Fold these 2 entries.
Entry 1:
Amino acid sequence: KSRVDEVLQMVGLTEKANEKAKKYSNGMKQRLLIARALLPSPEVIFLDEPTKGLDPGVARAIRNIVADLAKEGVTIFLTTHYMEEADRLCRRVAILEKGKIVALDTPARLKAQHGGPDTSLEDVFIALTGKDLYR
């Protein structure tokens, strides 16, 4: 089995391997981009908003791929505006404000430091950046 076949199977694109990528849905294109990044068996991978604009099922598939890669020891730098996603997937979270890191810690510690047991990572983000547009 080739590395290409292995990676296509990993991202669930084996059955579509012979189709032209221009016919792929957005979710399939996103999985193809991840597959492309995985071909050289990297130790570190950068993913810029990998679930942005995807339907819930495809977004879940992408999150599962990211979680599996992390379990395999791949270091993943993930940018996202979805705080719940960051909370579930990331061991450490950096919150940026105007290009500067204003907080860097585990999701659990950030929530404990900026609220308590009922605090979400979104609450932490808003507290640190002041970006609550509805107040």
Entry 2:
Amino acid sequence: MTALAAIAPAPAPAPSPAPVSRIAWLDIARGLGIVLVVIGHCLGGLIDSSVGDGAPWLRPVFFAIYTFHMPLFFVAAGVLVDRRLARDPIAFRDSLWSSIAWPYFLWSFLQFSLIYALGSAVNAPVDRYWPVILALPWKTVSQFWFLHALFQLHLLALLCWRRLGSAAFLLLMLSLKPLAALLPLPDVLRLAANQAPYYGIGVVIGTAGLARAFVERSVAVRLALLPLAAVLVVTALWVVPGLRPEIPFASARAAGLANIAWSPVVLPAAFAGLGAVVALASLVGGRLAQILGFLGRRSMAIFILHIMAVAGTRIIAIKLGLASVPLLLVLTAIAGLTAPLVAYAIFERFGLVKRLGLG
């Protein structure tokens, strides 16, 4: 708490509404994060398919990415909460529907409908349609658990952040992860609770605190975070699977590996990893910074749409006889990043981006 207090600003008084400028390093960090999300889902798709059986390296790489890539996004979501609530709490409340709940229901419905229609062509065929669709308010599908979890955490912030104060709110958020490990919570609550500490720390420290922690350090310190994060992630990879014997690492499917990677003991690796990404984002410049910043500004659209592009590319490539795992990984990652951008540009041309919940 003491260390956090040093970098955490006090809750801001309510100023008059003003336009919010983009934070370049935060957009770049989101860009790096969404690249990792796409690669992680490409790896997961290969792990769960027959072509991944002969590539044992897929699981360690998948685990390494999963230790910190979603914590990064929950911190990134949290750091903007205080300024948004201070500026216009009503707009923040309304955005829970327009920016989170609406895209959650719309794209869960569309993506699951496609999965159902494809039948045995997908890694995990489904034979029940309406029971899944009707259960969406309390049972998530595919990657859309993130939106449901973010909705829950934003709602908690809306209700509790100003009433509890920073210390009590942070304590609440930190307590949810161990509770999720101890109590038999429904998946929809467990997934949100697992990410609550990262979101809570983001809310408490804000963008200024995150910058002081990782961006405003010397170049040497920021560079040192990269090998430190690598050591902690490798250590987690060595230690954590042995603590979860009920999930055999060498044969686990992607969902089981993610479950291992989000164990409470992985917290040090998660914080080091997300800190390294933020530090790296502050060091990137030139054309690469522009590309990553652009991806960061489109991260919502990429997140929502990439699974359909990744799965479609993998299915077609395997049908055509392509069996090279590295090549499949490259092709699916390219498709997962570019296809959503093309779709976004088309939707933007026709004024549909907001209506479709893509930004």
